[in-house]
Amino acid sequence: MSQKTKKRRDEISKIVISEGKVKVKDLAHQFQVSSETIRKDLHFLDRMGVISKSHGGATVINDYFQLPLDVKLQENLEAKKHIARATLDLIEDGSMIYLDAGSTSIQVAKLLRVKRNLTVVTNSIQVANIVSDSEHNVIVCGGLLQKRGKALIGGYAVDVLKTIHIDVAITGSDGFKNMDGFTTFSLEEIAVRRQVHKSSDVNVIVCDASKFDKTSTYIYGKFSEYDYFVTDEQDPIRLKQVSGVRKIISVRSV
C-alpha cells in the first residue's frame, strides 16, 4: 500500500467514525479520486474492522460511537470533531496514552480505531466504554465517581497514575480567559490532572474556541508546562493568550 493510499484511508476512517456515516460520492469529491477508488478504500476498512461498508457509503460499527451520553448535548460539537482529528496525529501506534473525561477527549476516543495496539489510561467512564469496543487495552483509574462528569477522582486515581508511564496525555480545560494557565471547576480533579502531567512525556491540551472567553476556578497547569495546544481558534491575537505552550495547532472547523 502506498503512503498516499494509507493517508487517504486514515482520513476516511476519521471522517466515518466522527460523522457516523458518509457517502461514496462525497468522499470521491473531497479526495479528488474516482468512486471506484473510494469503494476499494471502504472495502479495505470494512475488512479491517474499522468501519462498516454500506450501500453507497459507510457507517460506524455501532450507534454508541455516534451518541456518547454527554456529547450529544455539548456545544461546538463540530469544532471538537475537527480538533480530535488533528489530535489523533499526535498519537503513535503502540503507545500508552491518557484521555480525561472532557467532551473533546471523548471525540478523540471515538477515532482511536484507526490506531493500532494502544493502551488507553483514563479516569472517564465514557471513554472507557468507547475504547472497550476496540482492540486497544484500557486501564481505568480507581477512585470516587464524580457523577456530573462521569470522572474518577481522588487518592485512588492518583495512586494508579503514579505507577504508569504515559507517552501522550490529552486533557481539556474549562476555560482560561485572563489566566496564566489552564483551569477546571473541579477542585477534586486538580490532583489527578497534575499527576497525569508528571507521568507523561508529552502533554496535550484540547480546547474549542469558546474556552478563550471562559474563566474557571482552579488552575491545574501553566501554559508553559504543556507541549501542544489543539484548538479551532484562528485569530492570532486570541491565540496569544496561550503563547506559552510549546506548539499551537489551529484547525478550521468549517
TrEMBL record:
Signal peptide: none annotated. Transmembrane segments: none annotated. Residues 5-60 form the HTH deoR-type domain. PROSITE patterns: HTH_DEOR_1 (PS00894), HTH_DEOR_2 (PS51000). It holds the Pfam family DeoRC. Gene3D superfamilies: 3.40.50.1360, Winged helix-like DNA-binding domain superfamily/Winged helix DNA-binding domain. This is DeoR/GlpR family transcriptional regulator of sugar metabolism. Keywords: DNA-binding, Transcription, Transcription regulation. InterPro entries: Carb_Metab_HTH_regulators (IPR050313), DeoR-like_C (IPR014036), DeoR_HTH (IPR001034), NagB/RpiA_transferase-like (IPR037171), Tscrpt_reg_HTH_DeoR_CS (IPR018356), WH-like_DNA-bd_sf (IPR036388), WH_DNA-bd_sf (IPR036390).
